[in-house]
Design a protein that fits this description.
Elements: H1 2-12, E1 17-20, E2 26-30, H2 36-46, E3 51-55, H3 56-61, E4 70-74, H4 81-89, E5 102-103, H5 106-117, E6 123-128, H6 134-143, E7 148-150, H7 151-160, E8 166-172, E9 181-187, E10 194-200, E11 210-216, H8 219-223, H9 231-244, E12 248-253, H10 256-259, H11 262-272, H12 278-284, H13 295-303, E13 308-312, H14 316-324, E14 328-333, H15 344-354, H16 359-362
Parallel strand pairs: 1-7, 11-12, 11-13, 13-14
Antiparallel strand pairs: 1-2, 2-6, 3-4, 3-6, 4-5, 8-9, 9-10, 10-12
Helix pairs in contact: 5-7, 11-12
Length: about 375
C-alpha cells in the first residue's frame, strides 16, 4: 500500500513512475504537468515512442468505441504535448485521421487507476521499456530516482482502501439545525481524504431504523452557496430532518464532484458553460456518469454500529450500495433544494440521465416531499 501512496504523491507532483506489469513495465507520466520537454524525457528514458492512455468514456467522445475500460493511442514523434492534452480533455479536439487504438495492457489500465485515485485527469502518457534501456531504468529505481509500483498492488489498493479507514478524532459541535451534534473524523489510509460522520442527537434514543444521509462534499455549494447545484440546501435540509426525526447520522464524504475531485469538477464546469450537461462534461474528461463508490460510507456505518437505516436520498445507486454492503434500508426519504434558473439543467441531467428521483422538485407532485420507498435493482 505504501508504494501506491508514494506513486500517487509523485504523479501529483508531475513526476513519472514505473508500473510493473506481467505484460511488460511501462513508464507513466500524468497529463497534468506534461509538456514537450517531459514527453521527450519520457521517450529518451524508456527508449520507445510514447502512447496516450485514455478511458473508454473519453474515447467514446472522440468517436472511438472500445469494449475494454481503456485503450492506448499511439503517438507520433511530431505530436506536441499541447495536442496530446487536447486529445485527452478538449471537447472540440479531433484525432488525426486513421488513428486506431491499441489494446490496453495491465500496465496501461493500472496507470489510469492511479490517476483516478490521485484525483487527476484519467489520462496519461505512457511508454514501454525497451530492452536496451532496462538496465538504466533499474538503476534509477534502485537509487530512488524513479519509483516502481506493481500493477496488482494498484488494483488491490483501489479495491480495499475503504477497509483501512481510521477513526481519528471527535468533538461536539452544536449546529444551527441540530444543537446536539458530534463530529467524528475518519481518515483514509493514504491520508488524502478525510470523511466526517455528524452524529445528531443521542444514539441511545435513535429510532430502530436510523435516519442517515450520505452527502458528498461540495465546496462550491455547501460553503459558498453556488447556484449551479442544490447541494448546500440539501445538506442543511438533511441535518434539520435528521434532528426532527429523533437524531441519526449525516456522513459527509470527501467525494467532490461525484468522486472526480475539485480540480476536475471545475474543469467540468467550464465544459458545461460551453453547452454540455454534467454527465457529458465528465465523460469529456474521461470519467463515467458517477465515479463515487460507497465502501467508505459502509465502513463508517459499521464502525458506528449502524445496520438498519432510513436513507435520505434521491439516488437509487445509494440504496443499491447499502443493500449490497449489508446495511438494510427500510425506507427512503427524499431531500431537496430549490429549483432555480441556474441549477435546472443540472437537476434535469441527474433525473433523466442518472435516474435520480426528482419529480417533486422538477414539477411533478410538487406538494409531496416524502416519496414512497422504491428499491432499485442491485447491479
Amino acid at each position: 500500500m505504501r508504494q501506491v501512496e508514494r506513486a500517487i504523491f509523485d504523479l501529483r507532483r508531475g513526476l513519472p513512475v514505473l508500473v510493473r506489469a506481467a505484460q511488460g513495465d511501462v513508464l507513466v507520466h500524468p497529463l497534468e504537468g506534461c509538456d514537450d520537454e517531459a514527453m521527450a524525457a519520457l521517450q529518451a528514458l524508456a527508449g520507445t515512442q510514447p502512447a496516450l492512455a485514455l478511458t473508454s468514456h473519453r474515447l467514446g467522445r472522440l468517436g472511438i468505441d472500445v469494449e475494454a475500460p481503456a485503450a492506448r493511442l499511439p503517438l507520433d514523434a511530431a505530436d506536441t504535448a499541447e495536442e496530446v492534452i487536447a486529445w485527452a480533455s478538449d471537447e472540440d479536439s479531433r484525432l488525426p485521421p486513421d488513428t486506431r487504438p491499441d489494446t490496453a495492457g495491465e500496465g496501461c489500465t493500472a496507470a489510469l487507476d492511479l490517476m483516478r485515485i490521485g484525483l487527476l485527469i484519467p489520462a496519461a502518457v505512457i511508454a514501454d521499456i525497451h530492452d536496451a534501456h532496462r538496465a538504466q531504468i533499474e538503476a534509477l529505481v534502485a537509487e530512488g530516482s524513479v519509483l516502481a509500483v506493481l500493477a496488482e498492488q494498484i488494483q488491490a489498493y483501489a479495491e480495499t482502501r475503504s477497509h483501512f479507514l481510521r477513526r481519528t478524532s471527535e468533538a461536539e459541535i452544536p449546529l444551527s439545525h441540530a444543537e446536539q451534534a458530534t463530529f467524528v473524523m475518519f481518515r483514509e489510509a493514504d491520508g488524502m481524504r478525510e470523511h466526517i460522520a455528524i452524529v445528531i442527537g443521542d444514539p441511545e434514543q435513535w429510532n430502530e431504523a436510523v435516519p442517515v444521509r450520505l452527502h458528498s462534499a461540495c465546496l462550491t455549494g455547501d460553503l459558498f452557496g453556488s447556484l449551479r447545484c442544490d447541494c448546500g440546501e440539501q445538506l442543511r435540509e438533511s441535518v434539520r430532518t435528521i434532528d426532527e426525526r429523533g437524531g441519526g447520522v449525516l456522513l459527509y464524504l470527501a467525494q467532490e464532484g461525484r468522486g472526480i475531485g475539485l480540480a476536475n469538477k471545475l474543469r467540468a464546469y467550464t465544459l458545461q458553460d460551453r453547452g454540455l450537461d454534467t454527465v457529458d462534461a465528465d465523460q469529456v474528461l474521461g470519467f463515467g456518469n458517477d465515479e463515487r463508490t460507497y465502501g467508505v460510507a459502509l465502513e463508517m456505518l459499521q464502525q458506528l454500529d449502524i445496520k438498519r437505516i432510513e436513507l435520505l436520498t434521491n439516488n437509487p445507486e445509494k440504496i443499491a450500495a447499502m443493500d449490497q454492503g449489508g446495511v438494510e434500508v427500510v425506507n427512503r426519504r427524499g431531500v431537496y433544494g430549490k429549483l432555480t434558473q441556474q441549477n435546472r439543467r443540472y437537476l434535469d441531467a441527474k433525473a433523466k440521465r442518472a435516474g435520480h428521483w426528482l419529480e417533486e422538485v422538477l414539477g411533478e407532485n410538487e406538494e409531496e416531499h416524502v416519496t414512497p420507498f422504491q428499491r432499485p435493482l442491485a447491479r
